[in-house]
Amino acid sequence: MNDRPNAILPSARPQEGLAPDALPPALLDNALAADRAARRRLHAVMTRKMCRWNSNILALWGLCPRAACRRARQCRGNAVDCFRRYGPLVPQHVRDAAELLYLGILEGLTFEQAWANPEQDAEALNEWLVTVERANDPRPIARVPPQS
User: Fold this and answer.
1) The whole model's pTM is what?
2) 4: nearest Cα among 135, 102, 129, 139
3) Cα–Cα distances in Å, from 131 out to 6, 59, 127, 137?
4) How many angstroms separate the CA atoms of 83 and 111, rounded?
């Protein structure tokens, strides 16, 4: 295992603004009121943030046919659609590892603390990221000539 989490894929690091306290205060204040529309907006914002984070941490850009996502090595389109479409293609144990990481960060842990959680299957997530990165490497694979 690497000494540094995601040393191979720095684009898999989560972006700022994941926690609800990063949302605009007016949106949170309205959501706490009995305003149904404000609760829906808050839910929509959190769903987009969660899906974008998961799309990036699971490297779904590598499964996406959009050139912009592949170039940026992160989701550049509709993250909710991307996560719903390509998320099921990721092995379940890798999705579970990403969920534990997400929950740790929501609890206030840093990325490194959440990554170091003993329950975290960081190796499975890292292997997945390496696999996606290798599959999207533009360099041709060297072929070994058959021995005669």
Assistant:
1) 0.65
2) 129
3) 13, 10, 6, 10
4) 21
